[in-house]
Design brief:
By secondary structure, the protein is an alpha/beta fold. The chain is built from 16 helices and 19 strands. The protein folds into 3 domains: 158 residues, Rossmann fold (3-Layer(aba) Sandwich), CATH 3.40.50; 116 residues, no CATH class; 68 residues, OB fold (Dihydrolipoamide Acetyltransferase, E2P) (Beta Barrel). The N terminus is likely disordered. It comes from Calorimonas adulescens.
Amino acid sequence: MMGECYMEEWIKKIREAGIVGAGGAGFPAYAKYNAHVDTFIANGAECEPLLNTDQAIMMRHPQEVVMALETVGKSMGAKNIYIAIKQKHQECIEKIDGAIKNLSASVIIYPLRDYYPAGDEFMLTYEVTRRVIPPAGIPLNVGVCVANVGTLYNAYNAIFNEEPVTYKYVTVNGEVGSPGVICVPIGTTLRDCIERVGGATLKDFSVIVGGPMMGRIYPDGKEALDLPVRKTTGGVIVLPVDHPLIFKKTIPESVAVKRARAACIQCRYCSDMCPRNLLGHQLYPHLVMRTVSNVENAADMRMTLLCSECNVCELYACPMGINPRTMNSVFKSKLREAGVRYDYSGYLLKVNDMIDYRRVPVYRLVMRLNLDRYSQDVKYYGTVEDIKSVKIMLRDGPGRTARPIVAQGDEVLKGQKIADVDDDALGVPVHASMAGTVTQITDEYITIENTGVKK
């Protein structure tokens, strides 16, 4: 096992490189990896439909992913090191397998069935280890660390090349000229991303940033065009404004409450198919719906704090087309505002005997979402360099917002640190993703214009 000194060295490099979880949550990687575990899992599940981002990384950088996986895993004390990939992605499996053999790495490929949400770290931990993460817990509670393959690729660049995070792989899919995966400088606008794949094919369109199940919806897609690619951005999906998924995900909260009171038939499908419930967590969306319509039989709403908002209940399970996830979210938000936390009492976590039969097949989910016309293999466009300007956010997840250390008018080089955090604060520095001139600094972002500064 690698020594503590070496572990401290690469953890420092990872922090200095500004690495956060690339899979969406954005938790600072150095803090996550500063622990000891017996099992380390690289998450290559590509959980959301229509996204090919993780596949592109594994196809193009298999050796880098495997080297980082083994380095980080062994340093954390892991005796079992896995990379989880959906079995249907045979090309990815072959690439990773080849890298494992070339490097003589102690890494095991774990093939996954094609279900949603296979990439959820609670489900993935159970799938690979048969351990159940406690309610409101994290994988470290059961001796496991889960890391996205994109995060590991960034870790490789930090550990072995001392390169900061300046690029992001992004899938652009839906109503665009030629859907694909592009690698763009952090801070590139969504407008530039969409134009690089042929532009939107519709005059009026909506945009989902992220995946169709958990991504953020912009009903008027034009409002999203100037948003920047962040370290956590994995996908940009362009859909017609009247697409059923857009309608479903933009129902006002007040309407969702009325529908819950009027139309819930208490069938339990939302609870029976809930991924957390299947793992034995006491989360019952049907009881939340019952409380909405009948407060006299109110359930303990602290259970809503366990909801991952995966949307299985709302977008797949409910036969009435109403909104259990929205109701969960309403109660959860109010509880958090009140400072309420979920206190796990230690109740027995019994995995549902039907778990293998209640998982949601991705192909059926795609059809249910009316997205089957967009479910396809997409091309890889390569790395985009000729971007005119970038807007780089100063925080991409939990932790302290980075403090700008450059001034307006400064010329910066690609990879140069432009914002930093105190050593004792949770957070990571931010780096210029292109050479140019700093044209704007706010409390939230720094804008850099490409003015011909040499790299």
